[in-house]
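User: I'm putting together notes for a lab meeting next week and I want to include a structural view of one of the chains we've been expressing. I don't have a solved structure, so I'd like a prediction I can at least talk through. The sequence is below, exactly as it appears in our construct file.
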Amino acid sequence: MKNIIVIIGDSSKELRNVRNLALASILVSIKLILGLFTIPILPTLSVGFTFLPTAIIGFLFGPIIGALCGLVSDLLGYIIHPTGPFFFGFTIVAILTGIVYGSFLYKKKITIKRCFFTALFVTIFLNLGLNTFFLAMLYNKAFIALMFPRIIKNIVTLIVNTVLLFLVLKKVEALKAEYKFK
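Assistant: Thanks for the context. Below is the predicted structure for the 182-residue chain, given as structure tokens.
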């Protein structure tokens, strides 16, 4: 419990640095651009990369800025490129995703195991759990009926996301050390 309080305190201090806010804004912009592109694998399965800027923000700045960037990116993403009706539940998921990446990755050494468990947590609780729940509410469909096709998709994307998360964050970790980024 003490550890999460320290993480939240340190993360809130990141808000005082203009350079951090500028970099977080650039990463939100990159996320918005990446949101316009996905790679279709099957008719019902596509791979997107918007989780990467979110994870980088969480890794560099922690759960507070991660949550704020989740909020801003979701709202701006809807304004720029709406893909359906606006539903605040998805904004909550975006905020929670920033919190999760920040809580799991901030000031931590990047390992494949850490990346896997972070991606697994996001997949199970946010993508499969909350997103499916909100889709069921929004479209008045049965939760279980929506869950089964989403399980298959999320198993595939869990593997891809873990590998991409590890590779990208290892590079960011190296750049952070090389440029003495605090």
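A couple of points you could mention at the meeting. The two ends are 24 Å apart (CA to CA). DSSP finds six helices and two strands in the chain.

User: Perfect, that's what I needed.
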